[in-house]
Specification:
The structure holds three protein chains of three kinds. Chain B is an all-alpha fold. Chain B has eleven helices and two strands; from the N terminus they run ααααββααααααα. Classes of the chains: A mainly alpha, B mainly alpha, C alpha/beta.
Chain lengths: 314, 289, 254
């Protein structure tokens, strides 16, 4: 078992999906919005990155995609961020006035619509086949070190930056206002503050980071296929959030690390048959579901489900 | 001609959606949350039927009956073990929890069944041609079944004591409890009923077409669409909504490629929630943040 | 000068006239009581002023500015402070944080929160908050989480939160409900001090013993409209007011 390779994989995936989990934590853990469609920002970022950085579609190749601007890597990331912002704006602005489960449903539906679009529109990004072999950026510039390590370091830096930004927000009056919003929205409103503005801001500000994580993901896998961007991603990230427990950014990272370690360790086991591997994969899904249930039962977002300890008495 | 064919198709889809969504809406109305795992229960029922029928050679009806009963008790078990203890945490937490249940059921089912396409061992009945339109007998059976289920449920909820307690609970749980209604028993009955309905839905899935372990996920959004169009929590609205959504989806084949058929359901979810969240039959109450 | 002017305001719920052509004014710097039997519409008037309900007719003007039709946060920002019958607070925050969360802060803007440019302002606000906590007697409890406060303390916290905002007018909805007599004395004292400092206060109360000794003017509402108004002594002995209270099955005059 190549521990070195495993470590690189884990670091990279934890960093990339960790950003998505942090985004989810800000949206739900701090702003109380149940987003069942985070994969859409992830996917939007990924596909935008690909379409911006791929060379233009050629007449001879079988791959169809709508555009290829052959821009350098950094432009792809910027584009991904913008795509995330746009997608969040379109899907977020009308839906944010909806309460909990309704918001969950609309975000879920939007993500599925987007996924369907990618799958069905051959001309967009090659439909179900997707795009394979997406060139990794800065190959030459980084040829002096192992590319995988460079990628791991880059994603980790990205994670750290996002973590620092989000943490600073949480520890500031902004974070305090979010807590107040969760505690008693009416009290906040009668103090002169607009609750919708906070929700919208968090939604719009955090989505681009999830989108950039999507770009990193393509950078890592060199694949832009719809199967990688299903709602399963959304729910795995949710499971990570619940496992992490506290509804804090730190908890989010703990959770995603647990999930990725679990997944990669299972993947590292050498199975004799395809059927054995398939059973393992299925049981992994079942285990994640079970963990979600168990953790939700015993450690359910203490900071979110807290109600006043007692009704006012003199 | 094509339109008529699609309408016929729509009736079958509508019948299926009616059965599938009634159980979901019942849970929403009585237990107060959206049980995403409802579709997975259907999957369980379908595969238990398949196993007994195609695997062990049992007669289809017997296999289906056993599967429905098993599913009912699985639904009850999940409710008692998983949902009831965290009920006090509110519908959003229950919603998230149901995602976990869905994952759990899906994982177990696909571990046991494996990949690949499965189908029931039921007599192959040729479609009849009625005035140039193809009508499969199974769709008629399904339509009849849906009608029976709807009527049966209405009778149960209105005429039996358990049914009336369930209705009372749906209106106001605390009030029902204080009026001496055995809330726990009514809750258990609700879950068994929802499980039966999910079971019937799962069997219907297998009758209508082939089965894969991913089939449940494809259904949940459509079920959600029907429930939302009905107005979350309204049972009568489900009847109308099931056919509205079914016809929307099937008639869309006139203008859109087949791959987009489920997207119609998703789009309906979005549009309805944004424009008229209370749906067809519901009333507006505290839907907004 | 009239700070608050309510003219011809009506609000119905279903078939019920909660507030019906209600009109009264509140002078700047005054300490006014709003009383009436149950169902008279007092809390509804507060909800109309603070924007939780929208009046179907009439106007509500604060310092000349029309409040009717505005959202609650706008109205609060224009200078209306109110407390609720059941005190509301941010129960996971400490008392100090409760006050800090009640005022606009630079740190509540995205960029500032990340860059940290709010610290100086935060320090000043903290000092001010501590003063207000002292004023309401919660000085020693400033770092205690709000969900550990007693009912009376929660009420004082709510008052402090609103004071922190420097409102033009403070609406108190049944502040003595569930409060011990000792704390009631403290509350009355605090309100007198605030009155002396020029704050305009309107108090809805059922506890007439508390109210009539405190305020300088009383407005009496019955069945959604204003019956009469005057100074406490006049109101105390007004036969119309007395019969309005006694004539109701559930009326109470403390």
């Amino acid at each position: 078992m190549n521990w070195g390779q495993l470590a690189i994989t884990v670091v990279t995936l934890v960093s990339i999906l960790g950003v998505v989990t942090l985004v989810l934590n800000m949206q739900y853990g701090h702003a109380g919005m149940i987003n069942f469609g985070v994969v859409a920002y992830f996917a939007a970022g990924a596909y935008t990155y690909v379409l911006l950085t791929q060379p233009p579609p050629s007449e001879t190749s079988l791959d169809q995609y709508v555009i290829g601007l052959d821009l350098p890597g950094w432009a792809g990331f910027v584009g991904a961020a913008i795509a995330g912002l746009v997608f969040a704006a379109i899907t977020g602005w009308p839906t944010l006035r909806l309460r909990g489960e309704y918001l969950a449903l609309t975000t879920f539906a939007f993500a599925e619509v987007f996924h369907s679009f990618i799958v069905n529109e051959q001309r967009f990004a090659n439909g179900t086949r997707g795009l394979v072999g997406v060139p990794r950026p800065y190959r030459e510039e980084l040829s002096f070190i192992d590319y995988d390590i460079a990628l791991a370091v880059a994603s980790l830096l990205f994670l750290i930056i996002v973590y620092v930004i989000f943490e600073r927000m949480v520890r500031s009056p902004y974070g305090r206002a979010l807590e107040a919003l969760r505690d008693d929205e009416l009290a906040l409103v009668t103090s002169g503050k607009r609750s919708r503005r906070f929700r919208l801001e968090i939604f719009l500000f955090t989505a681009p980071f999830a989108a950039m994580a999507g770009a990193f993901y393509v950078w890592y896998t060199t694949l832009a296929i719809p199967d990688l961007f299903t709602s399963e991603v959304t729910f795995v990230v949710w499971i990570a959030l619940v496992l992490g427990g506290e509804g804090s950014n730190r908890g989010a990272l703990i959770g995603i690390t647990m999930v990725i370690l679990f997944e990669e360790l299972i993947r590292a086991i050498p199975f004799d048959t395809i059927r054995a591997a398939q059973i393992a994969a299925s049981l992994e899904v079942a285990a994640l579901g079970l963990l979600l249930i168990v953790f939700l039962r015993w450690q359910p977002f203490a900071s979110l489900t807290r109600a006043p300890k007692r009704v006012a008495r003199s | 001609m094509r339109v008529t064919q699609l309408i016929v198709l729509g009736f079958g889809t509508g019948a299926f959606l009616l059965i599938a969504t009634l159980g979901f809406a019942l849970v929403r109305r009585v237990e107060g949350f959206l049980n995403i795992a409802h579709a997975e229960l259907m999957s369980v029922a379908a595969f238990v039927t398949w196993y007994l029928n195609a695997g062990l050679g049992w007669h289809f009806v017997l296999a289906a009956a056993v599967a429905v009963v098993v599913t009912a008790f699985i639904a009850l078990g999940i409710a008692r073990l998983i949902y009831d203890p965290i009920k006090h945490l509110g519908p959003p937490i229950l919603l998230i929890s149901s995602v976990g249940v869905a994952f759990l059921l899906h994982g177990i089912t696909s571990a046991v069944i494996g990949v690949g396409i499965r189908s029931f061992q039921i007599p192959r009945l040729d479609a009849w041609s009625v005035g140039g339109v193809l009508v499969t007998p199974y769709r008629i059976v399904l339509l009849v079944l849906a009608a029976l289920v709807a009527v049966g449920l209405a009778l149960f909820l209105n005429k039996t004591r358990t049914g009336k307690s369930i209705r009372a609970m749906a209106i106001n749980k605390e009030l029902a409890g204080s009026r001496g209604i055995n809330v726990t028993a009514a809750s258990r009955a609700t879950w068994l009923l929802a499980g039966v309905l999910a079971g019937l839905g799962g069997v219907a899935l297998g009758v209508l077409g082939t089965l894969t372990t991913d089939i449940a996920f494809q259904q949940i959004l459509v079920i959600l669409a029907v429930a939302i169009v009905a107005g979350l929590g309204s049972l009568y609205g489900v009847i109308a909504a099931a056919f509205i959504v079914a016809f929307a989806m099937d008639l869309s084949l006139l203008i859109l490629p087949g791959g987009y058929r489920p997207v119609i359901a998703f789009a309906i979810v979005i549009v309805v929630l944004l424009v008229r969240p209370q749906g067809v039959a519901g009333s507006r109450h505290e839907l907004t943040a | 000068m009239d700070l608050l002017r309510i003219e011809g305001v009506s609000k119905h719920f279903g078939g019920l006239n909660a507030v019906d052509d209600c009109s009264f004014t509140v002078e700047e710097g005054s300490l006014t009581g709003l009383i009436g039997p149950n169902g008279a519409g007092k809390s509804t008037v507060f909800n109309l002023i603070s924007g939780l309900y929208e009046p179907e007719s009439g106007s509500i003007k604060l310092d000349g500015e029309e409040l009717a039709g505005r959202s609650p946060d706008e109205i609060a920002a224009l200078g209306v402070g109110r407390t609720f019958q059941t005190p509301r607070s941010f129960f996971t925050l400490s008392c100090l944080e409760n006050l800090l969360a009640s005022i606009p802060s630079r740190g509540e803007h995205l960029m500032s929160s990340i860059l940290g440019t709010y610290r100086a302002e935060e320090e000043a606000a903290t000092a001010r908050a501590k003063d207000y906590l002292d004023l309401v007697g919660l000085g020693a409890r400033s770092d205690i989480s709000a969900d550990e406060l007693s009912g009376g303390e929660l009420r004082m916290l709510e008052v402090a939160r609103q004071l922190m905002r420097n409102p033009k007018i403070l609406l108190l909805d049944e502040p003595t409900a569930g409060v011990t007599p000792t704390l009631q004395v403290r509350l009355a004292q605090t309100l007198r001090e605030l009155h002396a400092q020029g704050l305009t206060v309107v108090v809805v109360e059922h506890n007439l013993g508390f109210l009539l000794d405190l305020v300088e003017r009383v407005v009496v509402m019955v069945s959604g409209r204003v019956l009469t108004d005057g100074d406490p002594d006049a109101i105390r002995s007004d036969p119309e007011v007395i019969s309005a209270y006694l004539g109701r099955r559930d009326g109470d005059a403390a």
